[in-house]
DNA sequence: TCCAAACCTGAAGCTTCCTTCATAAACCTG
DNA sequence: CAGGTTTATGAAGGAAGCTTCAGGTTTGGA
């Protein structure tokens, strides 16, 4: 039987004054830093608060519990990446397939690489209790977006758009993750940007039911 | 500063009699079950022992600490998958590229899907303290294996074998993971098997420096 | 200036968990 | 079956973490 979620994940109180807004952001940022320097297992609310320069009590004023804090951080990042991906999809509506793929892939890689530290830290949260659920729900939105985009390609008819979109997403996410976990050196990132485009272009080409 | 490993991860005692061999295996299996039903965060040594039908003390007789237990389980699985992958690579030495890819990919997918529960449970461990390290070191072995295999393809010359091998591996791992986390239904697995082959075939083809 | 609301503090309660060890049972060999 | 070895037990020590709350400080408007 899967574990049940914490009862409340909603923020306990929303910032009103400017200082508390700063505090809330500092806490979220601190969570990422602690995640990176100590690992999930040793991420404690006290340590996060300390790193953020506030007391534990303050943390609990805005996040009902530890899990809610982690989820909030995860969700913020996923939302951001998803938004950038969606925008790239819209922008490439009607483009020929090769250009479309290039545009979307590069947008994705850039979004993920903008803050490599955050991306890496979040893989750890995602593996936690229920984290998979969050990832999956955001993933589904992106999935639909890509699927729709693929359907607008002029002169191309895919055999199974749904699955093709899934493979493309999984490939993007998987290879990017691999590079991130290998250290995300500039050389690697550059290689990823180029090869991932090539990879998806050739895949989509060969999935096209219409002749070559 | 990254977290340091536990001092000892080596087994404290190796089974001599038959009953203890059974016990050790039961404990490892129980760890997987608990991981799946309760999540990493709620995996406790007591719970694992209970599930295995032994007392905590027994667990500590063979595993020096909790982390060692988790690592042992992770490593066993990775070794198994790696071995199967290597074998597939050797078997396809000299084959034309399309056949080679098909053989290797299918071996990998089958290895991962043989026990979907284990594969899924281990993603959680891998995210833990140092787990990334274990995965990376095993991954490097596979990387070299695949790289060498790619170099034996008759009539094909890759521009950057090293990176190409990396992309291929990351894609295999990434898409397989995606399907696993989506529930690994027979339909999905079937689709993965087919599309992943197609994906890698077309990618490798387009990486080939020798014309089409 | 004054006050209510917003914000912050951090010691302490409570729970959970890891790990040990003294003791007991099971096994095996001669 | 006797003695030594291997294996199993589980209560309890001790450490660590999550969360609360009673009381203090700061802010911003009237």
Question: Quick gist of this model?
Answer:
Two copies of one chain form a homodimer. The first copy, chain A, has 212 residues and is mainly α. In chain A, 73% of the residues lie in helices and 0% in strands.
Task: Please render the helix and strand layout as text.
Two copies of one chain form a homodimer.
Chain A: H1 18-38, H2 45-52, H3 56-62, H4 66-91, H5 97-113, H6 116-126, H7 131-151, H8 161-181, H9 186-207
Helix pairs in contact in A: 1-2, 1-4, 1-6, 4-5, 4-6, 4-7, 5-9, 7-8, 8-9
Chain A binds a DNA duplex (30 and 30 nucleotides) through helix 1 and helix 3.
SSE ordering of chain A: HHHHHHHHH
Structure summary, number of beta strands of chain A: 0
Assigned CATH class of the largest domain in chain A: Mainly Alpha
The stretches of 5 or more residues of chain A where confidence is low (pLDDT under 50) are 1-6
Total number of helices of chain A: 9
Q: Beta-strand level of the residues of chain A, as a percent range?
A: under 5%
Over the alpha carbons, how many angstroms does the gyration radius of chain A reach? 20 Å
How far apart the termini of chain A lie comes to 48 Å
């Amino acid at each position: 039987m899967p574990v049940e979620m914490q009862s409340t994940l909603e923020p306990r109180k929303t910032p009103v004054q400017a200082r508390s807004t700063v505090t809330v952001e500092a806490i979220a940022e601190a969570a990422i830093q602690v995640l990176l320097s100590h690992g999930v297992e040793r991420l404690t609310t006290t340590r996060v608060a300390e790193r953020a320069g506030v007391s534990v009590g303050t943390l609990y004023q805005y996040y009902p519990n530890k899990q809610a804090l982690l989820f909030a951080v995860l969700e913020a990042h996923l939302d951001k990446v998803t938004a950038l991906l969606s925008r790239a999809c819209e922008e490439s509506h009607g483009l020929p397939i090769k250009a479309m793929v290039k545009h979307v892939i590069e947008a994705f890689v850039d979004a993920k690489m903008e803050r490599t530290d955050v991306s890496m830290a979040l893989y750890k949260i995602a593996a936690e209790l229920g984290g998979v659920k969050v990832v999956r729900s955001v993933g589904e939105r992106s999935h639909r977006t890509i699927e729709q985009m693929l359907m607008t390609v002029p002169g191309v008819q895919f055999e199974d758009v749904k699955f093709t979109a899934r493979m493309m997403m999984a490939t993007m996410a998987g290879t990017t993750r691999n590079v991130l976990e290998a250290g995300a050196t500039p050389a690697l990132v550059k290689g990823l940007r180029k090869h991932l485009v090539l990879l998806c272009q050739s895949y989509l080409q060969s999935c096209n039911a219409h002749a070559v």
